[in-house]
Design goal:
single chain; mainly beta; 2 helices; 10 strands; globular; disordered N terminus
Length: 162
Amino acid sequence: MRFPVLVLVALSTTLMASAEVRKIAATLAEDGDFDAPEALQELQEGVVWLDLTMEPSLAPSIERGDATFESLEACDPGPVAATTVSIRTGSNHLLLDVHPGSPDQHAANLLSCNYAPQFGTESSFGTTTRLTGCYFANSISIPTAVQWILNPLPADACHYGN
């Protein structure tokens, strides 16, 4: 009886390791449609590899580790430390909060400001915001909308680095 149990444990571990990872890649730009990009509208609960680029008009707001909040509309290029990233999806019917996690445990997850000269002004050289990484997506149904909470997973959950 012990052998079949070990086989089942090994099989279930293999199946969990090969679970489907949904890839969600989108650029969030203000286009006047008031709709979230199609990739975000197709979000489902489960493991996702996220790659979002946000133009300055839809820059996210972040919560820092000291519980202060700020917008990333104007930021210097480089990594940004945040405990929560509130994404402006372009739609009031799709809310998205992402918890990047700690860099030592979630090394694939990164929030960054990237140089983008097309958005430069006299007071700023121009940046876009990019959020990448491996997350578990959970949905919460609220009146007239859905709120997505993405919690951090280690890179290997998305088969990254294997």
